[in-house]
Structures are given as structure tokens and as C-alpha cells.
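Re: the pair you flagged

First of the two:
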Amino acid sequence: MQKEKSVTQLSITDLVDKMKDNHVCLPSFQRDFVWKPDQMAKLLESVIRHYPIGTIMLLVAKGNEDLGKLSFVNTDLNAFTPKHYVIDGQQRLKTFLMLLRSGGRFDPNPPFEHNGANYKFFYKLAFPLSSIDKLSVDKPQFIVPQKTEDYEKDDYEQQGKDRLIPVEFMFSKKHSSSWVKRAFPRHKNLGRKHILKNISAIRSRIQNYSCPAEIICMKLKAIHHANMFRLLNEGGTDLTTFDLLAARFNPDGIDLRTLWKVSCKNYQNLEQFKIDPIFVLKTMLLIKQHEEDNPTCTMREVKGIRDYYADELGKRKLFEDDWRTASRSLDKAISMLKHEFGVASRKYLPYSPMVIPLAAALWHVRDYDERYKGNMKEKLRRWYWGSVFNKAFEKSTDTQIGKHFAALVEWLEPMTRTRIPTRINFKMKKDEIIESLDRIKTTADAVYKAVLCMSLRQGAHDIFNKEYLGGDVRLHDHHIFPKNFLKSLMEKNPDSAREILDKMNHPINRMLITDNTNLEIKDKPPHRYLADLDGRILKRHFLFSEIADDKISFLDFFEKRKSLIVEYVFHQLIN
């Protein structure tokens, strides 16, 4: 079919309706929504200012059904037949749908999640319509993203005091009116009408805004679509390697996004630890090279992983089987990190890339005799603590992943072998362990995280409710000697102030507890909240009976607890 194009103007209302009605959809391999809250705010602000936001590119669906389909509103795929695919414009269209879509009832939209935080978007009513075109455009002025807890109910009267209306209520005259009644219950009708008039003017600016839509009418092969997708996005938000691979694999009938969603559903550790799907592909590469001397999984090789299956019969099934094997191995690796090393969550994982060689190594030993598994765990324990305290994954990560996997394969062979391969032979004296502890500067330090989790490896329980901390509980790392207590100590002892300040936030002075216990402790000194505590609970936290004595100094406590932790690490490295 000869290539044909046409350009039309579509209003925001038209675009939102087309998404709600599934008249437009995404091809099945399209990437996920990646915009940040400030990008979403800037887009809506551009619309209100009537600035251009670029062309939306659509492909006629008829004749291109092999591209698959993804609904913007999560409709059953069998329940609709789209008229157009979105080739370019997904981030803009999803922003409109999320922010401006109004339900039938007066209910706020669920918050938008980004990087573990939830956001809601508001229009600032403090700006009169006449000032919109005069305001600076360096950053959003009147579209306000605000962090919120997902369980919080909307406080409409507070929104009224702050002059902030949720943007989803602006798109509907009925919902705007309902919001004004709730937000300004003590205003007279005239005052409410004035506010509604302002909202109505902004709503009209949104609804009357149109942007160009280029419609392509041609039969497009999936591989050509993938190339177009890549080229169109080079000038916008950077595509991840996973985005590009999802497009490249689509012509083979391999849906990477669906495979990843199924893996997260079947192996919940992947979701809990927010594992990057690229980790699955890297694990696949290591498994495929397990008999080679120098296995590698660089990003260059990940991008070329399709070549491993190019000449294989039934390559789709083979790839999907390998993907499931790698996902299952990653899940087992995370379980080992949790149970053997106390890594409670992603927050406390010293180095996320270390999961990859561990996963591939666990796959390699999957059929080993059970009688050997205890010895294998001892070896992996030495590898883990050596990798952390030697900062093995601090630099050249991809290189280290391959080297560590090869060394683990060699070392874990079920034969009499006491010599550790040079690449993972982390010999450390106690002075070197102490030096590693002394170098900790931030909570992002791998050693900081590992030290905090040591108590979980010991089977630590919460100091108040005696709940096991390694279970499904929300953890908080609390100062053993609280900051305010230490600040008052520094005022009384100015000669020791510098040393106390340096040690105040060190993991030696921190312990894992639950949220409720954190509220109970607050700024109490340890001799008050640890009094009469069972000695076994203290020991699992690397604490001691003297901690309950109000005469123990902070610096003496610090050195004694530090010596207990050094002994523990040293023992892990020599056994």
C-alpha cells in the first residue's frame, strides 16, 4: 500500500474520549509510562497557556493488527477493536488521561506513583486568568504536584484554604460545583459563583485546546514500527535498553513486557525488591555461558541477546523458557539474601547487581546433592561478606558480575576444595574490617546496609512487641543513642563533641525496629527504653546488658558494640 498521511486537529476532550472508548490504543510492545510529576505538570500548564505541545502520531489499525494492542484504560483485550495505534505521543496522552479523566461520581482520582512516592495534581486558583500568559515558564506556576499518602482522604476545606482544586474536578462542570461546595462551605453563593467562573474559564481553555494529529495510513511491519518507535523517541525521554529490546523482540512474537509482568506475579521477590528486568536478561546470558572461562553480561551483550536465539528452532519457546529459568533463579537469590544475610528489602541490599551472579550460581548448583548444600552456603556466606566489605561491586559492575559468577562456579563444585579462587578471595584482617567500618559516610554505603541487617541474620525481634523483624513488617533504623540526647551531651562535653558527631549516625549507633516501636522510643536514652529487656533479644541486636546502665558513655558503648560486629564479620570471612 502506498504511504499516505493526513493531519487533523484534535481537542483534549476528543483525545481523552478516544482513549476512554478504546478508539486509540498502544501497540503491545510499547514501553510503560515514564514521565515524572514535573513533566506532567509542565504539559498541562502548556495546554492552559495554549502553547504548542507537538504532533501526536497515529497509525490506522486496519491492516496492522499484528502489532497487538494495549488499552489506555486496561480493558479486556478481546472487548475492543481500536481504530488507531499511537506511534508517538503516549506520554502526553496518558498524562491527559490520568489528570483530566473525570468519573461518573464525585470521587478523586487515585494518586500517581513515582519513585515510591504518591502525588496528586492541583490547579492554583490564586492566579487570575488574565495573568496566565505573563507568568514565567521556567517551571510550573499554577499546576502543583503534591506528595500524599495513598490512604489519605481528601481534605476539601483545606484545599479551599490553600486555593488548590484537584485538576480532575476541573474537567467536569458538575464536579467543579461539587468541589466548591465542599471546599468553601461558609462562602456565600456570590463568592462561590466567582470561584466557579474562574474554574470554568480554565476548563474552557483546556477543552478548547487542539493539537495536530498526523494519521498514517499504511501497512507497517512490526520491525519497521520498532525502528520508527526508536527514532521518534531519541529526541524525547530516553528509551531504556528494555524499551528497545521489547521493540526488537516483538517481530519474533516475544512480548517482553508480558513476560516481565508474569515473572513479577509468579516471583514476588522481584516486585518487592524492584528488580530491573534487565537483570533477568543478564542472568540468562550468564547461564548460557556457564561452561565458558570468562562469561560476560555487558549492556552491549544484553542489547545483542536476540542473536543467541537467531538460528534456534522454536526460538520463542526457548527464549521464554530461559526467561522463566532466570526469573526463578533471581527469586531464589533474593530469598537467600533475605534468609542467610538478613537483607529485609531493596533498601538494605548492599549492591543490587550482586543478585545476578548469585542467581546464576544457584542455577548452576541446582542439582547438587543435598548433603553438600550446607557447605555451599558457607562458601556463599564468605563470598557475600567479602564482596560487601571489599566494595567489590563499587566499580566496573558488569565486569565484576561475570568474574564473580565464573569464580563461584569453580568454587562451588562438590569436591574437596579449600582454596578460594583468586577473584573472590577476600582476605581481611580485623584491622581492615575496622577500616571499612570507619570509612562509612552515608546510608547508601554497602557496608552500612549490611551492618544494619546483621541483627536479622541473628533472628532479631522487636525490642518492644517481640515481633520477629525478618517477617513482613515495616522496618525503621533507629538511633540507639538518640540524636537529641547526643546533642545535649555534646553541649556538656565540648571536648568530645567532634568525636560524638562523627559517630552519631554511624550504623554502630543504629538498630532495626518497627514503626510503632520508633514512636514509643522517640528521644529516650537507651537505659530507659532497654531496661529489663531479655538478654537474648539484646544479644541478637549486638547489644549487651551494660547498655541499660545510665552510667555507660556513648563512646564506650560505640567501641564495645563495634568490637562485637567486627568479630561477627571476621568469623563469617574465615569459616
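Second of the two:
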Amino acid sequence: MMAIYRRIQPKRLKTKLFLSLLILIIAPLIVLYLYLFNQFEAALQDKIVTQSSKGLDQAQQSTEDLMSLVYKTLVMVQNDKVIHDVLTRPEKYTELDRIHLIERVLKNIDNSIFVFNSQIVYYTLLDDYGTVYTSFQPQQMLNYRNIKNERWAQQLNVDHPYLWIANDPNYVSRDVTSSKYLLTLGSIMRDTNNTPFSMARISIDYEKWFHTFVHSDKEHQYYIIDKAGTLVSSFNSELVLDREVFAFFRETKEKSGFYFEQGTDNLINYRSIPQLDWYFVDVIPRKVLFREIRDLKLEFFSIFIAFILLFIAINMFISYKFTKPLTVLEKKMSSIVNQNLKITISEKNYTGEILQVIRSFNQMSTDMNTMVKLLKDEQKRRELVHFQMLLSQINPHFLMNTLNTIKWIAIRKGDKDIPDICVSLGNILETSLHSEVELIYLKDELKLIEDYLLIHELRYNDQLNVDYEYNSGMDYALVPKLSIQPLVENSILHGIAPLKGQGNILIRIFTEDKLLYIEIEDNGVGIQGTNQRQKGRSRKGIGLQNLKDRLQILFKEDGKLEVIPLEHGTLVRMQLPYLLSRPYEGG
């Protein structure tokens, strides 16, 4: 990532100046204007959605009102005495008289209810004697038995005396209406005694009716889609809807709402008619939604781009005048870098601020050469000290072999304590041999403490007592190897050893804020007593300082070691990150 950044980051000052102005001034302005345009679009969208919703609400309410009128028509038809008499006693009239009487009654009812548009309602009446009466010219001759066997007629019964048919195929002559479907109310007609006497089918040319609401609105595209996701009708539209739109209406449970179609980004606004399982859908193309905003945005960005081009030209001119002397200086400095800063730049031919820069650079080159020499000398001294320290250390392998020899001699002589001490000391030395491993489990480190304490048991008999306070769930926490042992050793040698009486050491381990704390608390002579005893020592102890250095190298600021004096004794607290490893099976 850093390599990519170095590759693309600008090198020249004029480029940096230009990018700074672009990022700090031009880019925020573009973002601001885009935000404002988006706010305008959102406000305009809400306004258009509100207007569209009003139109759909009106269409929904008008549809429900129309259905109520049709039902009212049905009631008037079945309550009319002339129609009842003709359908129940047809033998009183000739065939022509029956047709004339029914047509006259239906026309009067139609004109009284559908005042503005009576040409959208079609009546079909069936008596119980095999005769069909209509108020329209059918596409083909109507057959009484075929009508009786239609699905809607079969579904009518005592419990369901009427039924709405949402998509009834058009059976009216094409000279009268060219609509593909009709909206039909089928019903069993009853007299005043609630006795069935006839069957009625009242159909509405809803497409012709719906056009009265949408003919003046050319920007909106209206559709009727049923619950099965099938297109029933479309108005003012040549747009072919995407399959995802129909899938939406098959799955949605909402009765109303709007959303943006992903493919075309059209606004889809809809309202449902639950009685018919219909959705009235208003599709508004995005170009209609945001035509004014788009024109304004185009005009604005044309002016803005012209301004940016003028700004770039002026910026390039000023940058060239300002950075030309610096470019000359940069080339000189590059040649000096290639020669390891061992020569300086001549101060001739330069004045003013450039001369001051060159003088400062020459002084910096001299100082850096001096510093590099000092660092090299310091590195040599450190390597020499490290080599001498390695020479002064005893080979731990030699100690291991010697301990094994002592252990077997003691076993042959029947001594029980010396072999245990050799084994414990051997465990500690073996851990120190694994130099490539720096972190070990907490439980393994505590095992080393037990081995170390076993060595001291013979010396102190029952005067040394060690207690542990920690949660067994921390057994697999990672700690630096041989980090707790030096702290316990300090407590024994400097705190407990000079104490007259029972010596107690408490090893307390706990976690807090993702950190692991290890505390070694003793009731020894304390820090003051230890300092008095060490005044005469010629060799200072290095255990605690060594542990501090290790914690700093391993964990940086999260690794700390502090010594806290107590009223009776000393508390040493070690802090490190809480690193919990997974247990595993293995050697």
C-alpha cells in the first residue's frame, strides 16, 4: 500500500499546489453543489410522489364508488316489479314484449345512475326458463346453458349470492367496445321474500371509464396489474414494463407505496383495490421527474468547468514562475545525494532566500556526516560489549551435563534431596536453552516457579510459604519465559532471607482492560532494608533491569514493571498484553 502511495504521490511543488487547491477548494465545492442538487431532487421527488398519490387515491376512490353504483344498480334491477314479473311469469308476454320491457327498464336505471357515461355498463339477465336478456349487442349469440356453466355462475350460491370478476373477457361486440377485459358483478337476484328468481351479470367497461381520469395527464403512465403479477390494462403508455415490476406485485403485501425500479430508475407508485386484487400503478420516468433539475445541472456544470479550466491555466503560469528556481536547486541537491553528502553546493550565483536555503543545506550536510561517523563508532562499541558478554557467560549445556552427573552420583549414594534439586534446576536451564522461544504458557512459567521453590525448600525448611491467586482459565496466557522467576528470586533473596520469622510470598495474577497483571507481594524487610544491605555490594543486580528491557522490547508501552513499597514488605507489579493462546496436544 505504501509503495503504491509513493508511486502516485505528486513529486513537483506546482503539482502539489494544484492538488491542494483541487482537494481543499474545488472538490468540496463540487460535493456541496451535488449535495444541493440531490436535495432539490429529493424535494421535487416528494412533490411529484404526492401529486401522483393524489391521482391514484382519486382513481381508487372512484373505482370503489363505481363498484358501489354497480351494486346499487343490481339492487334496483332485482327490486323492479316489471323485471320481476317478466322473469318469473314470461308466459304473460310475447317474446318481443319481454325484450322491449326489460330494455326500457334497464335504460331508465342506467340513465338515472350513470348520468355522465351510460355507455360503459352492460346487463345480462337469465331467467329460470332458459332465456337470456341483454342491453347490448354481443360478439356472438349468447347461449343460456353456456352462461350457466361459466365459472362465476357455478360459484354463486346461497352463502355467496354475488361475486366480483376482475378480468372478465370481453363478450360485447367490438363495434361497441374494444377493451380486452370487463369488470363484472355476477349475482343471484332475490325478490322481497328473499327467494331467488333470476341471475344477473352487470359488466363495466372500466378501461373507457379509467381513460376519463388520465387522458389529460400525458407525463404519467398508468397500468392496472393484478395480484398474480399480470398486466390487465395500460393507459397513456407505450412503455413495456420490466419483469421485475410484475414480480414485485406478486410478492408485495403492501396496499400502497412507491419505489424506484432498478433497471430503468422509473418511479413506481401504486394503490390497491382489495376487492378486485388489483393494483393501480403510476409509472413516472426519471427524465420526467428531474427534467428541470437536469437542465439546471447541465448549465451550472458547463460554467463551472469553464471556470476550472481558467483556474488551471492561471495556476500553471504562477507555479512556473515560482518553482523554476527551486527546480534548479532540486537538480543540484540530487547530484549531491548521489555522492553521499560529501560535497557542498557552491554559494556563488545565488541570492536572497535561495542563498539561505543553500547555506542551510551545506551546514546540514556537514552535520550529517559528523553524525554518521558517531553512529558508526557507537555501533562498533555495542558489538564489542555484546561479544564480551557472550564470552563471560557459562555454557548452559555444560551446566546441564554437570547436573546430570551430580544427580546420578547422589542416586547411587542414596540421597533423596539432591536429585530433586538437580531435576528442578535442570528444568530451569532447559527452558533457558530454547533461545528461539520468547513467549511460553503461564502454566509452564508457574511450573518453573515450583521447580525454583523446590530448590529453596531445603534451605528455608518451613519458614517460606508461597500462595497463588489466579484463574485457571488463564493457564494458556502467553508470558515471557523466566519473567516471574526473577521476581520471586528477588523477593526471597532481598526480602525474605534477612527476615527473622515466617516469610510469605503471594503470586497474584489477573486481567483488566485487555492487559495481564502479575503481582509478587512479600512480607520481607522492604525496599529500604534491601538498599541498606546492598550498600556494600560491589556488583549491582541486573535482574529487574533486564526484565524491564525485555518487556519494553516485546510489548513497547504495554510492557511495564514497577516496584511498590509496602508497610511490611514489597509489591512488584508486571504489566503486559493479555494474549490467550489455544490449548493444543503435543510434546
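The mean pLDDT is 78.

-B.
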